[in-house]
Amino acid sequence: MKHISVMTPCYNEEGNVKNIYEAVKMEFEKLPQYTYEHIFIDNYSTDQTRRILRELAAQDKNVKVIFNARNFGPNRSGSYGMLQGTGDALICIVCDLQDPPEMIPQFLEKWEEGYKVVLGQKKKSKENILMFQVRKLYYRIMNWLSDTPQYEGVTGYGLFDKEVLETIGWMDDPDPYIRGLVPELGYRTYLLAYIQNKRQFGKSSYNFNKYFDFAITGVTHVSRKPLRIATMLGFIMSGISFFTAFLYLIMKLIWWDRFAMGTAPILIGIFLLASIQLAFIGVIGEYVGAILTRVTKRPMVVEEERINF
Description:
309 residues; Spore Coat Polysaccharide Biosynthesis Protein SpsA, Chain A
């Protein structure tokens, strides 16, 4: 009998954690051919989430809980939780029920057909339409920047074979960008279209800073194209600057008394070049930061406690 791990990251989800537990349990009651474990990794919640998780773990030994020693961010915490599964495959599903647990049988069906990765792909969403369009734009930018084609509308919700997880763990990346790793690794993948639901209870802990941090992590993990753009733009701007300077010199020599150089073009040029330099120093800094994270061998997560393992 095959054993399936389900992993749910959570942070301040007191209104949702019981619902996702019951929804997953209900799906596996329809699948007697599988045994399962439901791993919750709590990213240092400050509400009643931890108490509820202890109660669930006490009444159901299929529930396994990891309490983080502090908030390590959603990407690191979720990635660490994925690597703790003991099943033949692992299904990632968020706590807020925006991603439907009813798709679990479909994930398993495609996995049994031989696919190593089966991912949910958002085609529509019941969330704020502006946020949905912003996300679509982000996916397109990532696809353009990436060295390998990326999957649009994919958040990490889906199934990963044990072999895929072992490869990700072998890479020993303390802050992996898993949705970008999947197409790069080349495992046989199937995309299942779905409509994302509204969040049931509570408010998302994501804010602009977290979205921006996750976006930068994605760029630095899947592409070197920003560095190439910086190099090419440097050559182009150098050529334009040289040509402009040469043109001004010729015009001044020809119309010495009538052609006034003025300070405005000089100031504009200085500010333009300075802003471009500052932007690309920031790009280089992000890559240096990603390298620093790897070489300092920091752990993804430090655990405070684990239950039922």
